[in-house]
C-alpha cells in the first residue's frame, strides 16, 4: 500500500511539473481550480441523479445495488477531485461520467460478489449465488461430493 501511495505521489508531481512546464504557473493553478469547480458541479449533479435513482428503486421494492454503487463511486470521485493534483482530478472525473462509472461499477460488483461468496463459504459451508439468490444446502454432505442445484455443479 505504501508503494502504491508513493507511486501516486510521484505521478502527481510529474503531472503538475509537466503541465507547469507547458502552460506556466498561473495556467497550472487555473487548470487545477477549473478542475475542482467542474468536478464539484459534476459531483453535485451525478450525486443527485444517483440519490433519485436509489429512492425510486427503494420505493419500487427493487434491489438497489447498482444505485448504491453509483452513489459510492460518485462520492469517491468527489473526494478525488478535492485532492489537489491532475491525476486525482482525472480519476475523479472518470468516476463522475456515467459510461466510465458503469465499467467500474461492473468490476466492483463482481469483486464484491466473489468476496461475499468466499466469506460465506468460510463461515457456514458451501454457498452459491444463483440468479441473485443465495442457495445453500442444509443437508450435511461429504467434501468430495459436489452439490447440484438447477443442473449446475457447485464444488463445496
Automatic annotation (TrEMBL):
Which residues does UniProt call coiled coil? none
InterPro entries in the cross-refs: FxsA
Keyword annotations: Membrane, Transmembrane, Transmembrane helix
Pfam (any one): FxsA
Write down the superkingdom of origin. Bacteria
Query: What residue intervals traverse the membrane?
Result: 73-97
Name assigned to this protein: FxsA family protein
| Species in which this protein is naturally found | Amycolatopsis nalaikhensis
